[in-house]
Amino acid sequence: SLGAFGLASAIPFLVGVPWMWAVLRLLLGKTLGLMATLEAGVLPFLPGGVVKWLLASAILTGAWKVIDRPAATR
């Protein structure tokens, strides 16, 4: 589940970072290189994203264990 959450979190970056670059370039006239774009649109969000992936994975794994437990032990 951790990999699935990581992949799902990557999707907005794959769309959002190029969109951010295009808006900055076309509307504001500011051109960012690849590293500057990643520093502005990806790096600030990675720590919180990793925490979110870990929590979601742990909660989902715990829920699976509760659901799979026989009714007599609940």
Compact summary:
This protein has 3 helices and no strands.
In words, what does this structure look like?
The chain has 74 residues and is mainly α. It is built from three helices and no strands. It has helices at residues 2-26, 34-41, 46-68. 76% of the residues lie in helices and 0% in strands.
* Average pLDDT level: 88
Structural class call reads mainly alpha
Low-confidence stretches: none
- DSSP strand count: 0
Approximately how much helix is present in the residues? over 70%
Rg on CA atoms, Å: 19 Å
Largest sheet: none
Distance between the termini: 24 Å
Q: In DSSP terms, counting alpha (H) and pi (I) runs of 4 or more, how many helices?
A: 3
Q: What percentage of amino acids are in beta strands?
A: under 5%
Shape: elongated
| Helix/strand order, N-terminal first | HHH
Walk me through the topology:
Layout: H1 2-26, H2 34-41, H3 46-68
Key descriptive features of the protein:
single chain; mainly alpha; 74 residues; elongated
